Each structure stands twice: as C-alpha cells, then as structure tokens.
C-alpha cells in the first residue's frame, strides 16, 4: 500500500493510548469500533473521536478519514458520553 493511502494515528482512551494504522477509506465509525474492541470498551453510549490539539470532533462518523486531512502521528481522543473513555 502506498504511503498516501493510509494514516497512522495515536488514539487515547482512559484504558490506554496506542498507535493504529488505517486506510484513508476507513470511516470514523469503523475506527471507533476497532479502538473500542482493542481496549474492550463496551456499552451502548455515543462514542466520538476528537482531535487532541483542537478539540474538534470528527463528524459525521459515516465520513472517511480522507475527508479530515489527518496527518501521520496525529493524536485523537476517543470520548463517550462527553468524557474520555
């Protein structure tokens, strides 16, 4: 896969922080589900990905990562119910 077709993101939750690689065609919802599964985060609450530096939510979650012009190594925070999870 060519470099410009994927992005490496650092995603934080209250259960840990990790580096994840995604295709730019991955939706935000798919990223949320993968991170939830990785950290064993259950529940039916509303989850969101937020840019750590600006606090801006990646919405709508049906959009692909390509829309948000994320940079390699960018830090995101997984939140649920308005708080970090």
Feature tags:
single chain, 85 residues, mainly beta, Ubiquitin-like (UB roll), five-stranded mixed β-sheet, 1 helix
Plain-language structure description:
With 85 residues, this protein is mainly beta. The chain is 14% helix and 35% strand. The protein contains 1 helix and 5 strands. It has one helix at residues 28-39, and strands at 6-13, 16-23, 47-51, 74-80, 83-84. The longest helix has 12 residues, at 28-39. It starts with 5 loop residues before the first strand and ends with a strand.
Quick synopsis:
By secondary structure, this protein is mostly beta strands.
Helix content: 10-25%
Mean pLDDT: 90
- H-E order: EEHEEE
Sum up the overall morphology in one term.
globular
Radius of gyration using CA atoms only: 12 Å
Largest sheet report: 5 strands, mixed
Which percent range describes the beta-strand content? Answer: 35-45%
Distance linking N and C termini: 32 Å
Task: Give the structural class.
Answer: mainly beta
Question: What kind of oligomer do you see?
Answer: single chain
CATH architecture: Roll
Query: Total number of helical segments?
Result: 1
């Amino acid at each position: 896969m060519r470099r410009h077709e994927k992005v490496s993101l650092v995603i934080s939750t209250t259960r840990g922080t990790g580096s994840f690689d995604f295709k730019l065609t991955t939706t935000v919802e798919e990223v949320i589900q993968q991170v939830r599964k990785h950290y064993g985060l259950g529940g039916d609450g509303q989850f969101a990905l937020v840019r750590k530096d600006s606090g801006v939510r990646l919405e709508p979650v049906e959009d692909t990562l390509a829309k948000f012009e994320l940079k390699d190594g960018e830090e995101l925070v997984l939140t649920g119910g308005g708080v970090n999870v």
